[in-house]
Amino acid sequence: MRLLIRPAQYAALAAYLLFLGFPLLWLISASVKSSAELNSLSVSLLPQQWHWENYSQALDRQGLVRSAWNSLVVALVSTALVILIALPASYVLARVKGKVRMAGVTWILVSQVFPVVLVVLPLFLVLRTFGLTDSLVGLVLVHTTYMLPFALWMLQGYVASVPVELEEAGSMDGASRFTVLRAIVFPLLTPGIVATAMFSFVASWNEFFFALVLLQSPENYTLPITLKMFIGGEGKVALGPLAAGAVLAAIPSIVFFTLLRRRLTSGLMAGAVKG
Amino acid sequence: MTTPMVRARRREVAALVMPSLIPILVLSIAPLVVGIALAFTDARLVRKPDYDVVGLDNFARLAGNSLFWDSLRIGLIWTVSVTLLQLVAAMGLALLLNSGLRLQGLTRVLALVPWAMPPVVVAIMWQMIYSANGGPLNAFLGGIGLPGDINWLGDFSTALPAVIVVGVWVGMPQTTITLLAGLQQIPADLHEAAAVDGAGAWRRFTAVTWPSLRPIVTSITSLNFIWNFNSFALVYVLTEGGPGGRTMVPVLFVYLEAFKNRNLGYAAAMGVVLVIVIVAVLALYLRAQFRHDRTEKAR
Lengths: 275, 299
Hints:
The complex is a heterodimer of chains A (275) and B (299). With 275 residues, chain A is mostly helical. Chain A is 80% helix and 0% strand. Chain B has a single domain (33-298), classed as MetI-like (MetI-like fold), CATH 1.10.3720.
């Protein structure tokens, strides 16, 4: 009986790995199959021949490169804005106890509960008033606002781990609060800032709903919207290039998350336990 | 009693918080308030908005809209199934990973991938898996002698379960990693003591592991519930609510009402109902947990 436990455990683990990994393998494999093979009824995981031209075809589609560029710009600018805005506030959130912290934490939690679908209607009206629907500037503003709660939460966790004594030592030497922040606290937060920035980048890069609602002209589409429009194209889907485009779209997020995985675990833990 | 020092300190705090406060007020809190207000108007999504306050008319109309209630029912089935299955699957995987098997590193990396991928890519990938023409799932089922010609996402009876499986695939990893971190915080001697007392694996799980994990389970279940209820991209790309509305989760329903039918006020009323449902379900769940904790302590 006891001897059977390990093999059973490995069998279970194999089943999990298959469930998690197989769809990915299938996508990657589809991205290097010829269209003849994709449309045939013979099904095999490994392609009979490797066809890299799906990738060049995907990239040849004007829309894909353009929308990847849009996604990149939106994600980079919103990430920079999020960090710039959240950093000072996260310091207050971590250090100033009492009403300010209560209000901040309450808002962070509440912002997780509300269906964005309710917020998006008036948001659309607000942005339309300023002529910012169907514009990347509008999308940047929206992404920045919606990434703020999580960024604040992550960053304040990192601030809390910086010993207050270091700051006190700084102010004893006569430095002002802002000098202390710039010279002592923020440099110590660098790893946390990098992690938060990567997280924000991925959130913006993957974001679908706001982009779908706000953007109307194809030249403004972000990558997720363009990919969706490829499958929307009534039956005439070129599966190979679509799979290739999907693989390309997933690469940045996967790379970042793999790099982040340790930090993410501790960040999520902090959220789960204290949240 | 505001001394100059206190005032200076307040100014500092204000200066540090202001950059966050402005975007939050303008793009998050104000739309929220306006969104609730819209629910009481007959606003339409047109170039020149011109609308009247209609009081509770939208809600009265909504009460008779059986399609909306169907979508709410579908949304609750989707949310509860995905949340529960995520938890069960993630608990299994976390326990396996915590029992000292090899392949931990690989599993951990692989476990993060579904969560990191853009939902659109996830949906495209699973459309290929479920495909009725040359999809691997049907090929596998056919290979082992089961019917291998099911149109998973297009059939009335299989569409919702098929979409739920994708939801579990997406959400399981993060839950696994959180649970695993929780498992690793349980002191090993608790398990050893239980083992010395002759407790088997199941008994050790119910007596040691589960009680220690309960706070984490409560918070991730609440968060997963909210995220799953509000998730849009996955279902939208997989099925667009079809076939025949069988996967029309409420978020999608509201989106279509607002941006396809252009009934902004009516859609906002639906949004308000959704908020009430989420908050009610969460309150019931958290109250039950709280009661349970108290009786546990009293024992």
